[in-house]
Amino acid sequence: MRIDIVTVSPELIKSPFEHSILKRAQDKGKVEVFFHDLRDYAINKYGKIDDYQFGGGAGMVLMIEPIDKCLSGLMEQRNYDEIIYMTPDAKTLDQGTANILSAKKNLLILTGHYKGVDQRIRDKFITMEMSIGDYVLSGGELAAAVLCDAVIRLIPGVLGDETSALTDSFQDNLLAPPVYTRPAEYKGMKVPDILLSGNFPKIDDWRHEEALKRTKLIRPDLLNK
Length: 225
Ligand code: 6GU
What we know:
single chain; alpha/beta; Alpha/beta knot; Trp Operon Repressor, Chain A; 2 domains; five-stranded parallel sheet; 8 helices; 33% helix; elongated; binds 6-chloroguanine
């Protein structure tokens, strides 16, 4: 997979890709990530990329020209499966969407800033708009990093143990069950006996029951999906 990320703050988003699973995925050649600084496409030598909004109102809007130049240049070089705009006024990312995106070849991600981008960019280029939750971030960079993490770890061969992504929370619309490791008892706090029993079918049942219990209690909305 190749991911191109267009942003006004490349430095803000780079670091998550330099550690842990995201780094290993790149080292293994499973994904290539490229960052593009919108400032390089500014309309003047002062680096202008945003302006006041028509009709008045607080906040700057990213201008159409720098984004058009950057996106058009990339689109001439390859076909993108999706051109994604990160914005709070969109559908929220979920595991199903991450699964679908993990099978794509080329993704282009545009991150907003300030009041967002000129609507004509959204109308002309964007094939998918995505929020990561019902709260507002200062910019779309962290949201893009979240999206990339959710997608990249699902690319086959990225996680060492192929099954571990399958038992994540949400993969089956259930929260994950509790997990324990040694010691079996600590300051009087015991690990549930069933987990020490060696009876794996029973352990599977127990985990499923616990996942259901947790989901009913904390996220009953997931059970109606
Ligand atoms: Cl994608 N962008 C911003 N700025 N805020 C958000 C978001 C995105 N998703 C949730 N909040």
